[in-house]
Design brief:
Layout (H helix, E strand, L loop, with lengths): L1 H21 L2 H4 L4 E11 L2 E10 L7 E9 L9 E5 L7 E7 L6 E10 L5 E2 L1 E3 L2 H28 L6
Parallel strand pairs: 1-8
Antiparallel strand pairs: 1-2, 2-5, 3-4, 3-6, 6-7
């Protein structure tokens, strides 16, 4: 009887050891891309959106993307611009510049993502999202005003109203 109890305890010990090794943090570690800052700039007829990325995870980020939607004076969207970024080591910060094809009146960040070395998605956090969401109602009003102002100006010039 004593031998069976000893063997059972031994099996339980090895089973617990195996289970704990399967759930170590090393197996669940991953990269985490953060968009810390972004801003549109222009000078000498060269326009771009620049900013800073950081991997706040404990594993590398193999790459990722940012998608910008530039817009014109009346908030009319232009063609989206897709920008892919290079690998980020754990803790690494990198600046980026996305060149614009035409003068930049404004833009919206419409996509941000990252992936690991096997192509699986990683967490991608836009740390500016809350600030931008808070500004959104004011931007909607500004766009509506810009469209009404230009529409009124066209109508006064004799252009038929659409």
């Amino acid at each position: 009887m004593r031998l069976r109890g000893y063997t059972l305890r031994r099996y339980m010990y090895y089973a617990m050891l195996l289970a704990s090794s399967l759930f170590t943090s090393a197996l669940w570690a991953k990269g985490e891309a953060h968009l810390l800052f972004h801003m549109g700039l222009g000078a000498n007829d060269k326009f771009f959106v620049g900013g800073t990325l950081q991997n706040k995870g404990d594993q590398p980020v193999a790459g990722g993307y940012i998608t910008i939607l530039p817009y014109q004076v009346q908030c009319e969207p232009s063609t989206p611009i897709f920008y892919s970024f290079e690998p980020l080591a754990p803790g690494e910060k990198k600046e980026f510049r996305i060149p614009m094809k035409s003068p930049l009146m404004g833009y919206r960040l419409i996509g941000f993502g990252a992936y690991d070395n096997m192509g699986f998605p990683l967490p991608a956090i836009d740390e500016t999202a809350k600030i931008i969401q808070a500004r959104e109602p004011g931007e909607h009003k500004a766009c509506q005003t810009a469209r009404k102002t230009i529409s009124t100006t066209k109508n006064k010039a004799g252009t038929p109203k659409p």
